Amino acid sequence: MAPDLNSLPPSSASAPINSARVAAGSRPTGGDAVQKQPNILFIMADQLAAPLLKMYNPDSQIKTPHLDALAEKSVLFDSAYCPSPLCAPSRMSLITGQLPTKIASWDNAAALNPEVPTFAHYLRGAGYHTLLAGKMHFIGDQLHGYESRLTSDIYPGDFGWVVDWDKPDTRLEWYHNASSILQAGTCIRSNQLDYDEEVMYRSTQFMYDYVREGPGKRPFCLTVSLTHPHDPYTIEQKYWDRYEDVDIELPKVRIPNEKQDSHSKRLLQVCDLWDQDFSDGQIKRARRAYYGAVSYVDDCVGRLLDVLKQCRLDKDTIVIFSGDHGDMLGERNLWYKMCYFENSVRVPMMIYQPTRFTPHRVQSNVSTLDLLPTLCDMVGAKPVPGLPMDGISMLPHLEGRPGNDTAIAEYMGEGTVSPLMMIKRGPWKYITCPADPPMLFNLQTDPQELDNLAERLSQKSEEEMTDDERASWAVFSKFEVEAASRWDMGDITQKVLTSQRYRRLVWSALIQGQFTSWDWNPIDDGRNKYIRSHMPLDDLERRARYPPVDTYGKETSYVTVDQAGSHGQ
């Protein structure tokens, strides 16, 4: 978004607006002469499975040169998990540092209470200009601490997508279905491409405008949230063509429907996949389109980093990259997310601040829940004591010291009939649900999650077990005790049911007569952005140019521009 020219003060080529002189011969920078806090650029991808990326899997076929280069310079987390394998609950937990049950973020149609603080509140209170470009899936309040939104959301901010536990066998029309796989391939344009192109334009324009502001501007925290590589599996020809020479791998694990675990069986039903028998060709087309969409995200990341560097902001900006959840992409015959297998629940995470942290890999389990307390630690904005906080700061990990090694996740969305919970600690992954048998996997010895130790060992007496099996059974028993202490499943179930019933009633009323939805629509007034007769042309052009130049076009060491930016107003 170009700036509002009404906000531009007169400038002079001989008198810099910025009173802080720059050293002779130096180039102008994107920040003020003294900036107390670094900027923050937080980039999110949607439905990006960490196990499929080359930074985590050297044999990966996906081409992500920009992300790979960033990972080499960052602190890279090998075992980062989302707090819920569904868009909205995962994102609400990420921004608040609290698990879904603590903030009643049950599904994709649950409203986050606006009194719950987010990292945007904490950073804004610490002097940051907090901005959001892209998807966040807010229901109700569309800001939640962000001072500005540069785009509208791609998804509805209403109660239309409520899950119904009162009718567990009913498949709602808005659930995922087989069309994304059956129709996979190329496109010239799509809803998601339209959206992410706008997100990229607004985000890069903000950085261009920010760097042209005068003194006294606040550091920014810009969240750029892309909707790719989320299904539908379709992408532009040029990204499809990047995999022309690649024999797309088929899923490593195939499990027949009748041998699936209980939750996976429900997912196959609610996603209308139970009776589908996709050919290898159909699976490869869907995976190829997904790979292309990931490469598209990679190019977006490269573009953002290039603009950051062009604006000379790269030296004083923290860069964080992560996602909301993954995609099974045909593994175990499952697609999309909504389960706790690695492709669905494990996300990429890297934090780049070379002036402070040495690049290294972190093996310990962490969660995107942990970003709020981590950001607070990084900028000195401590969470308020006494307020709920499930996230644990990753600062020790960033500094190369021992830290937390546990990730918790909760899921009450599509495919569930009661709460489905996960604890990941060390190599162990424990999954529990009142409606299903428990599951325990040792990912160190069983990375494909094929040996459910909870089920297998329950059929043996202790005398029949090996020493390793007895040790595994002891781990399982401890998890069972911890889960019973951590979650009151009956109470959670009643809260979910009550919320679902409330929201279904409210929704049925709101769609009668004139429909009004919560939404955010940024104002874009061209009359005050570009050249108009009431504006002095030469003055406008000089003030809008970056880097600034003097009367004769020579780059000057003064910042002679004070320009409002694309702040979503």
Automatic annotation (TrEMBL):
Keywords: Hydrolase, Metal-binding. The keyword Hydrolase applies. The keyword Hydrolase applies. This is Choline-sulfatase. It holds the Pfam family Choline_sulf_C. GO terms for molecular function: metal ion binding; sulfuric ester hydrolase activity. NCBIfam families: chol_sulfatase (TIGR03417). Residues 38-380 form the Sulfatase N-terminal domain.
